[in-house]
Structure formats: structure tokens, C-alpha cells
Predict the 3D structure of the following.
Amino acid sequence: MIGKLSTIMVVIKDMDRSVTFYRDVLGLKLLYQTPHWSELDAGNIHIGLHPEGKEVKVSPSMGCTFGFEVADIQKTIADLKNKGAHVFMEPRQDFGWLAMVGDPDGYAVQLYQPAAHAQPA
């Protein structure tokens, strides 16, 4: 039987640059870092960073994104902008509030504030 989803692997071009983004900009806890694999704690799941190589390539347009729930999307976006994050999509009301920022390789990282906690812009 298959167990719970435990890790999302992101293929990246520069380990130091990506670790800096996920750790220092998004605020995830770095579990360990090597040149060939780094892992960060994202709550119930880990984000694994794997450098581009012969079998795996950076490909942010392949249709896979992942998201983090936030308590205050307006404040989160303002904080991320102050840390130099590229905002793909400003907060918009959808099924709650949704915004997207880009990681150093162009992957979209969703930020979601559930409707029950949603604040007007």
C-alpha cells in the first residue's frame, strides 16, 4: 500500500541560490544541504531540491505547481516583495485568496489564504 505523500522534488539550476530562496525568502526550515540534494521542511511534506542533470531538467512549465497556506496573504506578499521575491500574480479573490511568486528557476509557488480567514484588499 502506498503511504502519505512525503516529498516534492524540484529540479533546480543552482543549489545555493535555491536553498537561499526556500529557506530565507519563504522561511522553510533547511533540514540538510549537499551539492546533490537538499531538503526543507514544509510542514507535512518536504521540498527536495535536486540539481539539473542528464536525466532531469529544470522545467517550470510542465504543469506542476505547489502551494503554501498563509494566514494573511497581503502581509505575506508584502514581506516576500521586501525580500526580493518575484510576484507572478498579485493576490486575487478566488476560492479564498490566491497569489503566486516565482522561485529562482521560474517555478510558480502558490500562496493561498482560505476564505474563512480572507481579508479584503
Summary: The chain has a mean pLDDT of 91.
